[in-house]
Specification:
The protein is α/β, with parallel strands linked by helices. It is built from five helices and six strands. The protein has one domain: Rossmann fold (3-Layer(aba) Sandwich), CATH 3.40.50. Strand 2, helix 3 and strand 3 form a beta-alpha-beta unit.
Length: about 170
């Protein structure tokens, strides 16, 4: 619909999706269907340290009953590879935070085109917002906190950040 050049650009993007729960599954499905990270040089990284629970099955559609107690990130990555076999995707089981800065380091962030949050934890959301500002990476901030949901596009030094929009 948008042409080959645009599709090639989408395929070459390198994105980090933080969280593979309900919103993360939706993001992964959409990225796979759009071909983001499915071209030459493209890559999707996804991290989630949680295991799939039976209660997740009604809202996290990439998971099946046979997946209970398996890692969310690895299972979701395998499921979206079925949707788009050309997807270049690497799952991790690491929490994002100061304790994993040696893993998600300068080299990791420097190669990214952007980050998409899919978190239910305010501290992790604020942390990723600050990392994206530091590395000057665009952030698609989305997540839940109880019954509240949030979606925000953050472009460092251009738009308001997630952290600055929080009422404390």
């Amino acid at each position: 619909m948008f042409g080959r050049e645009f599709q090639k650009k989408l395929g070459s993007l390198r994105y980090f999706i933080v969280g593979a729960g309900a919103i993360g599954c939706e993001l992964l499905k959409n990225f796979a269907m759009l071909g983001i990270g499915a071209g030459e040089g493209g890559q999707i990284y996804v991290t989630d340290m949680d295991l799939i629970e039976k209660s997740n099955l009604n809202r996290q559609f990439l998971f099946r009953p046979r997946d209970v107690q398996k890692p969310k990130s690895k299972t979701a990555a395998a499921a979206v590879k079925v949707l788009n076999s050309g997807l270049n995707i690497t799952p991790f089981e690491h929490r994002v935070g100061p304790e994993t800065e040696s893993f998600f380091d300068d080299v990791f962030f420097d190669q990214l085109n952007g980050v998409a949050n899919a978190l239910d934890n305010a501290d992790a959301r604020i942390y990723m917002d600050r990392r994206c500002t530091y590395y000057r990476k665009p952030l698609l901030e989305s997540g839940t906190l109880g019954t509240k949901g949030n979606v925000q596009v953050v472009i460092p030094h251009l738009t308001e950040s997630y952290s600055s929009s929080q009422v404390i």
